[in-house]
Recover the amino acids of this structure.
């Protein structure tokens, strides 16, 4: 009954089968959210980002200290993967974790230590890092998920601090303690491709190194996997749990088990990102991996980008990285970058309840309206 | 043997004693109505059966198909075939109609039931069968459930229950907030599923409407059962109706 317009239009179409070809709007409806479109947009975005964000602004005359640089872009993608996984938990399952530094950090250490002692193959490092994160998520989720809401958040925070201090001191001989782990030895991909090298035949204006290609590929893979998860019946279960846990139980779903699975999946994304972080930096700094501030950063990034969207957190990572790395280097205001980040955060939360991506979505709907649809 | 039996159940919300010595039974293949005023304990009874906590069942026994379910987990009770459709928003508003129905398939997955000592007695209805029975839903498969009208949401909740292997459907205030014309449609659906073999336990404040389709009725007041008998008998028992239902 709420959609009388739609049904009236259908009956009209039935009675006069003249115009069979789909309108622009119908075509848009068909493709705008399917997997190939999402994958294609991600590939396009990853491929064009260096040119649009690094090369173009400099050519247009923006002082280079205000513009993006290649390593920052790679770092953004890495944090984007982390945030994408975090949003599976916060945005789609409704669980606020304050301990995600654990998965990001332990995977970084595992990948780093593995590279120093066994092999520096980037793929092997990722495998070891991600598996470590999954194992940690399994154990910590198994315990923390017995409580909900604020108790869950505090439990994860407590575990985060515990792991931080264990790595800082008792395990100091292995982890390097306060200095971080410095022995990382990143090898070449498949034994032939040195990630630091430039990509042949591609102008530097577009891609500067194999590292970006490698991280970009991981980003695309993460988006596709994330999309699959969210659009499977499994994703529907997670959204059902976010909406009302008890009602999901009435339906017969073992809510606890699904929450644990979401927690582990989210940990796996964090593990992938943490391993990539070490591969990029060739160093494991404890303050940027296991410190509780990382757990806070990922919440801020996800909220900035838009909780409950697939792409939003990646944009949040971009904004955060820009403020943290470029605004912080600006004269005079640079010193106040934490405060600026806070103001940006308040502004985004106050004016865009669904984050940056919420605005993008709103724009997409307006475009759909303009080409003849009726989105809302 | 009755399908469901409550034997001297006492339920509490914290310190408050809500259900007092409630005994009732639901027979296979009937529509059983549980009536009473606001706050009489109707919803608490359904929640006690469904295993929702709170309330806490401190004494008494609830058996379903000869199996003691008093202390079982909510989701396990649901898998055994008792489908509870709670009051107010009964569907997952942020899921499409189709996804709401597909949740029932996930429930049957091994990943969901693994490690739980549960068996599905039957498959539940197929999605085609359901959409045939509820044509409105088949037009709206891709729509968010939250954008459906109240009556359509109620239909979707019932349809989802049927898609699971439900033997006992518990409906809490299914007519609440619906227009009289829509109530008739929902009534028709409830009677149809009874005729197809699913037992229904109906909780309603709208006693007149409930008595119309019920086979047997219970009236509950201040947490105790004050009337039990065929709907016919309650319709003729003016004193009980006046005193406990105000109709």
């Amino acid at each position: 009954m709420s959609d009388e317009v739609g049904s009236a239009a259908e009956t009209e179409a039935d009675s006069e089968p003249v115009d069979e070809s789909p309108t622009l709007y119908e075509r848009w409806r068909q493709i705008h959210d399917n997997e190939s479109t999402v994958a294609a947009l991600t590939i396009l975005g990853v491929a064009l980002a260096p040119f649009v964000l690094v090369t173009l602004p400099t050519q247009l005359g923006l002082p280079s200290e205000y513009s993006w640089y290649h390593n920052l872009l790679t770092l953004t993608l890495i944090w984007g993967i982390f945030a994408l996984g975090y949003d599976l938990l916060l945005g789609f399952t409704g669980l606020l974790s304050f301990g995600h530094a654990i998965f990001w950090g332990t995977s970084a250490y595992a990948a780093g230590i593995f590279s120093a002692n066994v092999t520096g193959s980037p793929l092997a490092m990722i495998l070891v890092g991600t598996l470590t994160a999954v194992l940690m998520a399994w154990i910590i989720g198994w315990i923390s998920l017995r409580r909900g809401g604020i108790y869950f958040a505090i439990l994860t925070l407590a575990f985060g601090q515990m792991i931080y201090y264990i790595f800082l001191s008792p395990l100091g001989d292995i982890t390097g303690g306060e200095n971080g782990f410095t022995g990382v030895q990143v090898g070449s991909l498949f034994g032939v491709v040195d990630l630091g090298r430039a990509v042949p035949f591609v102008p530097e204006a577009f891609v500067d190194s194999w590292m970006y290609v490698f991280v970009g590929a991981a980003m695309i893979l993460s988006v596709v996997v994330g999309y699959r998860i969210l659009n499977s019946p499994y994703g529907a279960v997670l959204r059902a749990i976010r909406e009302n846990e008890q009602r999901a139980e009435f339906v017969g779903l073992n809510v606890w088990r699904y929450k644990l699975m979401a927690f582990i999946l989210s940990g796996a994304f964090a593990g992938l990102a943490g391993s990539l972080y070490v591969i990029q930096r060739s160093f494991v700094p404890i303050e940027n991996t296991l410190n509780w501030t990382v757990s806070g950063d990922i919440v801020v990034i996800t909220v900035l980008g838009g909780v409950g969207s697939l792409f939003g957190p990646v944009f949040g990572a971009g904004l955060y990285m820009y403020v943290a790395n470029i605004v912080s280097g600006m004269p005079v205001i640079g010193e106040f970058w934490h405060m600026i980040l806070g103001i940006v955060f308040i502004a985004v939360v106050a004016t865009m309840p669904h984050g940056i991506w919420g605005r993008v979505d709103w724009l997409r709907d307006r475009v759909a309206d303009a080409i003849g649809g009726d989105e809302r | 043997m009755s399908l469901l039996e409550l034997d001297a159940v006492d339920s509490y919300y914290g310190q408050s004693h809500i259900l007092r010595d409630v005994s009732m039974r639901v027979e296979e293949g009937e529509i059983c109505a549980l009536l009473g005023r606001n706050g009489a304990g109707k919803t608490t009874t359904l929640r006690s059966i469904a295993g929702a906590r709170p309330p806490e069942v401190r004494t008494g026994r609830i058996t379903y198909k000869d199996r003691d379910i008093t202390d079982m987990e909510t989701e396990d009770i649901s898998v055994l075939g008792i489908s509870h459709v709670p009051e107010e928003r009964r569907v997952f508003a942020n899921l499409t109609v189709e996804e709401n129905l597909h949740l029932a398939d996930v429930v049957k997955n091994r990943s969901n039931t693994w490690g739980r000592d549960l068996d599905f007695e039957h498959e539940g209805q197929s999605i085609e069968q359901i959409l045939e029975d509820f044509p409105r839903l088949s037009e709206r498969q891709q729509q968010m459930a939250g954008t459906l009208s109240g009556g359509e949401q109620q239909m979707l909740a019932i349809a989802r229950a049927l898609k699971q292997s439900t033997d006992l459907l518990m409906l809490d205030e299914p007519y609440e907030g619906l227009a009289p014309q829509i109530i008739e449609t929902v009534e028709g659906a409830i009677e149809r599923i009874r005729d197809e073999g699913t037992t229904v336990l109906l909780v309603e404040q709208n006693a007149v409407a409930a008595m119309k389709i019920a086979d047997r009725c219970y009236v509950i007041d201040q947490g105790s059962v004050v009337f039990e008998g065929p709907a016919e008998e309650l319709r003729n028992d003016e004193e009980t109706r006046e005193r406990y239902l105000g109709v």
Notes: Chain B has a mean pLDDT of 90.
